[in-house]
Amino acid sequence: MMGSAEIARQLAKIFAEHNEIPLILDPVILSTSGHSLLEDKGVDILTSEIFPHLDLVTPNLREAAFLTGSDPIDTIEDMIRAAEKLRAMGPKAVLVKGGHLTGDILTDILVTGEGVREFSSPKIATDNTHGTGCTLATAIAVGIGQGMDVNGAVLRGHDYVQKAIMNAPGFGHGKGPLNHLVVLD
After folding, report:
1. Residue 142: helix, strand or coil by DSSP?
2. Could you give the residue numbers annotated as active site?
3. 171 in a structural domain
């Protein structure tokens, strides 16, 4: 979460200087209640100065709609259109996270220069989903840092988050945390 245009500007400068390493960004720009977490000028810097340096950006449905100026994203087709619009802004790949789509299946959409790929799994009925988007982006970044291609890193990240949700510790009330200590086989 950048919070201000000045922080976004500094990140853009750092990303331009270090473009030799893979850059993955989860754009935390809207709160759960819909409030903006980044001022308008910061959003402009994000899309015009940061996006062109990114290997992958991982917005959720509301962030993808906000960044593209789209209507609410309610279908897989909407997700694909938004991902393609976002990719045209500069990132090499876009993963639109579909955890908030209605239905029993969770589908994330990855758009790269090679095309569109869907990553789907059954939704898990639980309140232990706090931080799933950040966890997924981090798991993907780890995979890419280990030399995986983006498709493999997204697949493994998706599997990791599913397992982390299934093994959540159940702390507190409301949206609880995942179990980040799970190990994939």
Report:
1. helix
2. 97, 129, 131-134
3. no
List 177's β-bridge partners, or say none.
130
State the number of CA atoms in the 13 A half-sphere of 81 facing the CB.
12
Mean pLDDT of 8-34: 86
CATH number of the domain residue 58 falls in: 3.40.1190.20
How far is Cα 39 from Cα 11, in angstroms, rounded to an integer?
15
Q: SS3 for 36-52, per residue?
A: ECECHHHHHHHHHHHHH
Give the domain range for residue 22: 5-166
Q: Is residue 173 in a domain?
A: no
Cα angle at 171 between 3 and 162, to 5 degrees? 75
Residue range 66-82, pLDDT digits in tens: 999 988 899 999 999 99
Q: How far apart are CA 172 and CA 49, in angstroms?
A: 40
